[in-house]
Amino acid sequence: MRALVTGGCGFIGSHVVRSLIASGWAVTNLDCLTYASNPGNLADVAGNPRYTFVHGDICDFDLARNLVDKADVVLNFAAETHVDRSLLDPLVFVRTDVEGVVSLLEAVRHAPQARLVHMSTDEVFGSLPLGIEAAEDAPFAPTSPYSASKAAAELQIRAYAATYGLPITVLRCSNVYGPGQHLEKFIPLFTTRALAGEELPLYGDGRQEREWLFVEDLLSAVGVVLADLPVAPGAHAVHIGSGERLPNIEVAGRICDLAGASRSLIRPVFDRPGHDRRYALDCANLRARGWAPRVPFDEGLSRTVRWYADQAATWSHSADNDFAAYLDRQYSARLSAVEEFGS
Ligand code: TYD
User: Fold this and answer.
1) What is the pLDDT of residues 248-277, one digit of tens each?
2) Taking burial as the number of CB atoms within 10 A of a residue's CB, which of 105, 141, 272, 333 is the most buried?
3) Atom of ligand 1 nearest to the CA of 203
């Protein structure tokens, strides 16, 4: 089988590429190499005869069409994903996360053999009250430019499925973490800062809850989905979450312990505007198909912190000028503010 993976040099995409190659697939990786990509993530498969890298953008329709024509399955992991950046620079999210998806949809509707599997997010549902889990048919209520762009992409997918009779799979995942994630995200940022003995900027009161899914459990879920892709026209949503929901302050504390750092590094700072309090997915349907997460959060977090500690020579917050500028823009004022937050 031939897969076109978009965004294969990113965190999740690179894990999926490696897993598909290991399962015997021929994989073409289309990636435009934004700041969030790391081709080094795929150094071990770069020479594999079943692996091809194409440097390009999903918004380039001619290129997308050409590659989709040669694929049995198209897995779209190309996206701008960081909520904080969507507050600083929203237009790029609309371009990649919405226009890029429409470009792939146009390509797929001209290629009847190609099945589209699109990565979405639990954030399309917005913040959920305690005790509520979002089912696959729950209404969208996005609150950030990022989640609104992902919800918009899903609406385009529904429209294409209805208009052209396409069977499309939409994966909605909770927060995925593990080795190789970009340092801007909560767990890598707090891990690397804790290892370096730097303050950990915890937004607001730190009581926001996220559902943490170790990347290996996402890979097994993708395997279950690929083994039985739908044939009926429609947008078929699949929820993938662990059920392990923790407040950020608890995760921050555990990261400090695992990194051998003091919990006093945790520094409540001015909150993210529009910060969603809680996400939670109802994953009964995927579990009924035989899938279950295998890596408990404690184990996954410990493996992740160890990975960043082992890789300390390869990451540096200051060596990458663009990332240093982003950190400055995002955190300098927060960390230098004298007011007390989160009380
Ligand atoms: P993040 O990794 O950005 O994922 P998302 O917002 O898409 O769920 O953040 C996870 C949680 O951690 C979220 O509630 C925001 C919080 N957070 C902080 O408190 N401080 C930070 O510096 C970052 C990046 C996130």
Assistant:
1) 999 999 999 999 999 999 999 999 999 999
2) 105
3) 19
Calculate how far, in angstroms, residue 10's C-alpha sits from the geometric centre of ligand 1: 18
Could you tell me the residue range of the domain that residue 309 belongs to? 186-209+244-279+295-335
Query: Residue 310 catalytic?
Result: no
- Model pLDDT, residue 341: 62
C-alpha of residue 106 to centroid of ligand 1, in Å: 33
- Cross-strand bridge partners of residue 168: 116, 235
Q: Which two tokens stand for residue 313?
A: 């020579």
Structure pTM?
Answer: 0.97
Q: Is the C-beta atom of 146 inside 6 A of ligand 1?
A: no
| Contact (Cβ atoms closer than 8 angstroms) between residue 47 and residue 235 | no
Task: Please pick, among 84, 97, 99, 122, the residue that the annotation labels catalytic.
Answer: 122
> Is 146 among the residues known to form the active site?
yes
- Same-domain pairing of 200 and 84: no
Write the CATH number for 43: 3.40.50.720
Whether 121 maps to a domain, the answer reads: yes
Whether residues 32 and 87 fall in one domain = yes
